[in-house]
Structure formats: structure tokens, C-alpha cells
Specification:
The protein is an alpha+beta fold. The protein folds into two domains: 51 residues, no CATH class; 61 residues, Rubrerythrin, domain 2, CATH 2.20.28. The chain is 25% helix and 21% strand. It is built from two helices and seven strands. Strand 1 and strand 2 form a beta hairpin. The chain is elongated and about 60 Å long. The N and C termini lie far apart (39 Å). The structure holds zinc ion (2 copies).
């Protein structure tokens, strides 16, 4: 068997050969499987926002200062943290508890 160099995925810590791993936006090595999961998750969050009724409040948590707030769908206000003004936000999923939320935000998408 030829010796090929393997790359470790920064998310699942499994090793992959070069054709199965990619750099993500933050230049970390992520395997295609994890990349697919990230994309799906992001799409789901976006969908959740778009599917909300007009004037239905959507709960956000600021990824920067953890301030929680809600913005009504269809509001002309810019979607940003009223506390620190950052726009890096996460939608609080109703089925998730606080601990999940925190581990979620430890996600590499939020360290830069
Ligand atoms: Zn992976
Ligand atoms: Zn904030």
C-alpha cells in the first residue's frame, strides 16, 4: 500500500486524504462530510428565518457578547446586536437548551 499523507479534519478529528478534505472560510481543514453538515445547518438557520411569519419575533443570541434579543421578522431594523452592534448572530433554536447553544457557538465558525 502506498503511503499517502493524511489530513486531520478540525471538526471530527478523523483523517482523510487530500481529495476528501477542504479548507473552510477560516482556513481550517474540514472533511467533506463535516463541510456538508455545516452547509446544511446554515441553510436550515436561514430557512428558519425566512419561513417565520411577518412580525413573528425571532430570537437571536449575539455570538460576540452573548446578549439575547429578538427581532421581528419584517422589521426594517438591521439584524445586529443591540448591545455591541456586531452582526455575528445565531438564531436560538427552540428545541435547544442553553448548554447546547454554548457548545454550538464554540464551533469554529465563531473563532477568528
Ligand atoms: Zn470531519
Ligand atoms: Zn453583542
Amino acid at each position: 500500500m502506498p503511503l499517502t499523507s493524511l489530513y486531520t479534519c478540525s471538526r471530527c478529528r478523523k483523517e482523510f486524504n487530500f481529495s476528501n478534505i477542504k479548507y473552510d472560510e477560516s482556513h481550517k481543514l474540514v472533511c467533506l462530510e463535516c463541510l456538508d453538515k455545516i452547509t446544511k445547518l446554515e441553510r436550515k438557520e436561514k430557512l428558519q428565518f425566512e419561513k417565520a411569519e411577518d412580525n413573528e419575533p425571532i430570537n437571536f443570541i449575539c455570538a460576540h457578547c452573548r446578549y439575547k434579543f429578538s427581532i421581528k421578522k419584517g422589521s426594517p431594523k438591521a439584524v445586529k446586536c443591540p448591545y455591541c452592534g456586531k452582526t455575528k448572530l445565531m438564531i436560538i433554536k427552540r428545541y435547544k437548551d442553553e448548554n447546547d447553544l454554548i457548545s454550538d457557538s464554540m464551533d469554529h465558525r465563531f473563532d477568528y
